[in-house]
Design brief:
It is a single chain. By secondary structure, the protein is α/β, with parallel strands linked by helices. The strands form three sheets. Strands 3-2-1-4-5 form a five-stranded parallel beta sheet, with helices on both faces. Helix 3 packs across helix 4 and helix 8 packs across helix 9. The structure holds arginine. The site of arginine has 11 residues, from helix 4, strand 6 and strand 7.
């Protein structure tokens, strides 16, 4: 009996060719697994395509709920943005997919896991590190990294092996999409001076074509988890879907980042992440009201650490567990509601409220009702001003 490999299958040319290539090169039976983390794809037809190409079994798994609950929301609670810009949609889905593939490998008695990543990106590292952490006995096969075929050679390989290639040329872009956002690379985007063509955007309207009338929305959080949109309670998947819709319509969520890949390459990345951008901003607005100054400062630093760790594929690491424990603790009073105005690509805070607010109007006011003891302030001048004054004096000497 042949050994089995579990392949992360997308339905595209690379992973379709991979089914045949793995069977030919390694003599493995291939089980194709397509995992739905919220990209608009025709999963029944993807499932069938894998069988047509020669997979011995083809599965489709709807992992949207688990993705949101176990990966997206913990990252949101941490305000994780890689290099201050990228909400990490692709990076967050990789450990989830790896985990499911390892589970299926165990169920199917497979000895290998295969993925379609090339050797130049971050995704190969995320898959390899996660799979290896979860079960180091599993072999990892990465056909696109190993076969060394050009695009043309791949297409002729497909033709020779009776794999249907799309009539129209596949998109010149490399695209990955899930509920938390869409990543777009390659093609004309490789020229960092070229403005992205309007037609690459699918989730967001151009801010100039967005409605002239702003949309006000409210988002409610319970311990840092968004639970209601405009006062209506809903599950995480629906909330993100609806927010992608409305924020996208108002042109919110386009990102153009010169990104530092973990393999040492700088890369120009375009993202569309309407819901992620709005939710992270909104969550921070609420935190500003309920966390102390020191908690906020510390969390800011932790956020960056956490984002790097997610980006680098270290989701299943001890440090991630520790950071997550801190984040969970920090969220115990992050409950309340934020009002945002979406308008022509902007997402602007309009109001916030919380039963745990640390804002005290009696201390902040310049009007009547002030209870702040202003005679205490000279002491503060001393504390904050003295060190730099002393340093400046030393410098002048
Ligand atoms: N640069 C992003 C990241 O590393 C996006 C990767 C997109 N992946 C893809 N296969 N197109 O997370």
């Amino acid at each position: 009996m042949s050994e089995k490999a579990i392949l992360a299958y997308s339905g595209g040319l690379d992973t379709s060719v991979a089914i045949k290539w793995i069977a030919e090169k390694y003599g493995f039976d291939v089980v194709a697994v397509a995992i739905d983390v919220g990209s608009e794809k025709n999963y029944p037809s993807i499932r069938q395509r894998a069988l047509d190409v020669g997979a011995v079994k083809s599965l489709v798994i709807d992992a949207r709920e688990q993705f949101v609950k176990d990966y997206v929301f913990p990252a949101l609670q941490a305000n994780a943005l890689y290099e201050g810009e990228y909400p990490l949609a692709t990076a967050l889905a990789r450990p989830l997919i790896a985990n499911l593939l390892v589970d299926i490998a165990h169920q199917e008695g497979a000895t290998a896991i295969a993925h379609g990543c090339t050797g130049k990106g971050n995704d190969q590292v995320r898959f390899d590190v996660s799979i290896n952490t979860l079960d180091s006995d599993l072999k990892i096969i990465a056909p696109a990294r190993e076969w060394g075929m050009t695009r043309e050679e791949e297409i002729s390989y497909a033709k020779e092996h009776g794999i249907a290639t799309p009539v129209t040329m596949e998109s010149p872009y490399s695209i990955d999409e899930n509920l938390w956002g869409k990543s777009i690379e390659c093609g004309v985007l490789e020229d960092p001076w070229a403005e992205p063509p309007e037609d690459i955007y699918e989730l967001t309207r151009s801010p100039s074509d967005a409605p002239g009338v702003p949309l006000y929305i409210t988002i409610s959080f319970d311990k840092g988890i968004p639970t209601a949109l405009d006062g209506k309670e809903m599950d995480g998947v629906s909330l993100i879907e609806q927010l992608n819709e409305s924020a996208g319509m108002h042109g919110v969520g386009r990102i153009d980042n010169m990104e530092n890949r973990l393999v040492g390459i700088k890369s120009r990345e375009i993202y569309e992440a309407p819901a992620a951008v709005v939710l992270i901003k909104t969550h921070r607005v609420l935190e500003d009201m309920v966390l102390s100054r020191n908690q906020l400062r510390f969390k800011e630093r932790l956020s960056q650490e956490y984002a790097d760790l997610i980006y680098d594929g270290l989701w299943f690491s001890s440090l991630r567990d520790d950071l997550a424990a801190f984040v969970t603790s920090s969220q115990r009073f992050v409950t309340g509601t934020v009002m945002m105005k979406l308008h022509k690509g902007n997402c602007i805070v309009a109001g916030r409220k919380s039963p745990y607010s640390l804002y005290d109007v009696r201390l902040a006011t310049y009007d009547e009702g002030d209870v702040f003891d202003q005679s205490a302030s000279p002491g503060f001048i001393h504390i904050w001003g003295l060190p730099s004054r002393t340093q400046r004096r030393v410098q002048l000497q």
